[in-house]
Amino acid sequence: MPTSRRVTNLALLVSIGLVLSIIESTFPPLLPVPGAKLGLANIATVLALYVFGPRMAIEVTVLRSILGGLLRGSVVGLFLSFSGGIVSTLVMIALYLLLKRYLSIVGVSVAGAVTHNVVQLAAAFLLIQHAALFFYLPYLVLISVPTGLFVGFASRRVAVSLQGVSPATG
Amino acid sequence: MERTTKSVTGKIKAGDIVLVALVIAASIASMVPVSRASAGEKGSLAIIEVNGEEVRRLELGDNQGCRTLRVQGAQGASTVVVEYGTVWMAESACRDKLCVGMGRIDSTGQSIVCLPNRVVIRITGGGKPRDVDAITE
Hints:
A: mainly alpha; Arp2/3 complex 21 kDa subunit ARPC3; 7 helices; 77% helix; B: mini-chromosome maintenance (MCM) complex, domain 2; four-stranded antiparallel β-sheet; disordered N terminus
């Protein structure tokens, strides 16, 4: 794919992720558990992985985390979303490459949501150093099942629609 | 790129179901041990409230001896006992005695609530609060 087209697609995915996270930030919290959120922005990463491949997924995640952190103006938030985002993307890529026969886009998305929440909590622990944080871990993992499923099904819907559209796959 | 897009249309696979089941099982199984391990630190102060208003504060030091406090609730008297850093509801005029059945509490953030008699015991103080300091997006 020519460089210009690649850059355009990357920018498109990053902006989709940013807009989704801004939309999501206007929703009321799902549950009274800090960190429990829908993770709509992960749709951009999952799409990047399945439509364009692992490299694009990493680029989208890195850019989205940095830009999102700058937009929100929170350095702590940047650290948390960057660590959670990059590790969950790496896990999704590994599962996508190694377990493609057994896992569909939906399962990969659930794994990404779980990893994101676990890593983010671990990063928060590094900052706050309070063991009571881990009290939330089982609930965060449990809530990431429905959110991961939602993101997975949404991504699959979009990815299926993108099939056969030559500019996207070009 | 044909190859990668083709895999997208795939239906739900067995691994998806196994993964989701594993995650749900692991999180539910870990709830009790995790909440036990990360329970709050020992509290230093028990606050007794009746009808939402604080009526008494009791120090929870280990060497304070055994003290008994009777408070008048909505349906009658409740007896609160403090001993060895723990506090419990020894007697209550309420009908179901759930508050008495809750046993002893000793950590910050814990509470014993008697709804019928409108008596609440909650523990504060002692180390850092259990509340989370920051919420991230």
